[in-house]
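REQUEST FORM: STRUCTURE PREDICTION
Request ID: SP-0412
Submitted by: Lab K.M.
Chain count: 1
Length (residues): 424
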Amino acid sequence: MYKAPGTKSIGGGGPSLLDFLVGAALLAYTVGFLSFRVGELVTLVANYGPHCAAALAGTLVLRRALGRRTRWALHIASLTALVYVMDYVVTKPLPEPSAVHSSMTVAITGANAGVGYETARQLAVNYGVQVIMGCRSEAKCSKAADAIAEEIAIAQSSGSVTPMLIDLSDLQSVKSFVPNLGDRTVDVLFNNAGYVPGAGAQTNQYGLDPSFTSMHLAHFFLAEELLKLNSELRVVNTSSGTHHLCALPFALPRFALDRMHLPQRPGCLDEEYLKTGIRSETDGAAYIQSKLANVMHAVELPRRHPQVTAIAVDLGWVGTSILPFMEGALTPTNLGWMRSASAGILPVLHAILSTKEDLVDGLGGKRKLNDFGVIQNLFGRTEEAFSYPWWRDGPNANLSRERMIAVGERLWEESASLLQENGY
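STATUS: Completed
RESULT:
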């Protein structure tokens, strides 16, 4: 067996130290890859099960025929190919730019960075869309808009960007945003702004969990205000595959569930949460609770406003600045563990740009978008909310689609009541 200079075998004729170190590095990388990409892998298998099984079987057969170090190369090549397939190959092709797109006005919250910025950039530069960039910081918003404006000029696009202030922690700021639009009518609202809250944040001036206010209630309010000006508004909510964590663990056997010490309750947004949880300090499940609320909001919107099209988007893990570890020279995105913003926004672009007919495609011939809102998965394909196997009436809790839609109705009523209580 070949040994690199300076390496020693472990245990005589066994693997060399180099073999051991490379194997450990590959294992660590694979664990990281699976940890970040597990949601995407679940969606990939759900949509392309036979293809995934065939690829896995072929890889395993090939692996058995190769030597140890050739297997390393196969392992690296397989993960690289998997990243490319998930990010670019199976993602539904985007619509071609058209006159319909160049006549659109799209408002985006959290538009100065990350997913919001990249969405604004591609819409304005590539599709000629008139984009209203809603941001909390005037300086950051103007800087981001200037950068996109330079690209618009270079591309000679008909698009435009307009920076506007909106602070989602302040309902009065949300209220003021709409009249500040002037005579512009928003065709699509992209409720994008969000953050990962730390546990223990005290209730805000409204007596509410600040994460609930900023990531659900303010977006709910903004949509209602814009609907007064355009009854056919399309609403796109940034959700996340993490909303499945409100159900997935509770599909496990009881003995396993009891050992997990989860911060979330079954279904996350149950009656107790709507009664007391939203009026308490931020807890450890705040992020996934808000992402489930974004889904419920989208599902319920067309039932309350039949002319509305509403989509909750699952982006997968996208490399942004939402958490500190996502920034720096070596990031999960650079390692291929997370999607880049340019790849991650593809389902958002589908939700904003696709026709209603295209959005409903695959849901069944009689399905209408005003029945319920839908989910756009990370490959740009439309799904029903709460349709995965773990959303069911199980031994630990009733988390069926019917049950979650009913809770979504309660969430809507509570949200409207909270706005009324605070004079809105």
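NOTES: Strands lie at 105-109, 130-135, 160-165, 188-191, 234-238, 309-313, 374-376, 382-383.
Reviewed by: T.R.
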